[in-house]
Design goal:
With 214 residues, the protein is mainly β. 6% of the residues lie in helices and 48% in strands. The chain is built from two helices and 18 strands. A hairpin with a 4-residue loop joins strand 9 and strand 10. The protein is elongated, with a radius of gyration of 23 Å. The termini are far apart. Its main location: secreted. This is Interleukin-22 receptor subunit alpha-2. Belongs to the type II cytokine receptor family.
Length: 214
């Protein structure tokens, strides 16, 4: 029995954490500390905070992977959720390892916007598109993240002639098309953008660079 108890403890999953980007939400965990724990199978359950019964996540029941997609199960974005994972090896089951409480609306990371750049004479026109959630409208298109939060676009210009690293904020607001004027011909400019959420004071990562020479 003692050996079983040792095995139980040594295969128990560690660091059970939610990761979420634009409401695409996955649960991640680490194997137990025993070397053989790498061969364990995992079982995932979830529930809304305050509920008494745990739900099995069927697609993550007896899996060898250490990631489980819970996007669909956490779609009520204002609700707080918990998840838990246990491991099994050689007929022995570990105790459950519990995640921290996770509220999608508060804790999902916002991704950067999509940026398209068109240049005319001495100006650059920047077209911005907010990231989209995995949740769909009735017509089938994915709902943009701007439906869930007040989000502002932040647009930065990098004048490659001066300095690669020096980003200047040229616009902050909700417009999806902006024009940056009075630029110098023959100079290479790059544009990057972020989403900014004033209410929670969160920023996304920078978008990928879009560069053009006037």
């Amino acid at each position: 029995v003692l050996e079983n108890q040792d095995l139980q403890d040594s295969i128990k999953p560690q660091k059970v954490e939610f990761h979420s980007l634009n409401f695409n939400t996955t649960l991640h965990w680490q194997p137990g500390w025993a070397r053989e724990a790498r061969d364990a199978l995992y079982f995932v359950q979830y529930k809304v905070y305050g509920q008494t019964t745990w739900q099995n996540k069927d697609e993550c029941w007896g899996i060898s992977s250490r990631v489980c997609d819970l996007t669909h199960e956490t779609s009520d974005i204002q609700e707080p959720y918990y998840s838990r994972v246990r491991a099994a090896l050689a007929g022995v089951y570990s105790n459950w390892s519990l995640s921290c409480r996770f509220t999608p609306w508060r804790e999902t990371m916002i991704g950067p916007p999509m940026v398209t750049v068109v240049h005319s004479n001495k100006s650059i026109i920047v077209k911005l598109q907010a990231p989209r959630s995995p949740y769909k409208r009735k017509r089938g298109s994915n709902i943009p993240m701007t439906n869930y939060y007040e989000l502002l676009y932040q647009v930065f210009i990098i004048n490659n002639f001066l300095d690669e690293q020096h980003r200047v904020l040229v616009y902050e607001g909700k417009e999806k098309v902006i024009k940056i004027q009075d630029l110098r011909p023959g100079v290479s400019y790059c544009i990057v953008a972020k989403m900014y959420m004033p209410m929670l004071d969160h920023s996304s990562a920078y978008s990928s660079r879009q560069c053009t020479v006037l």
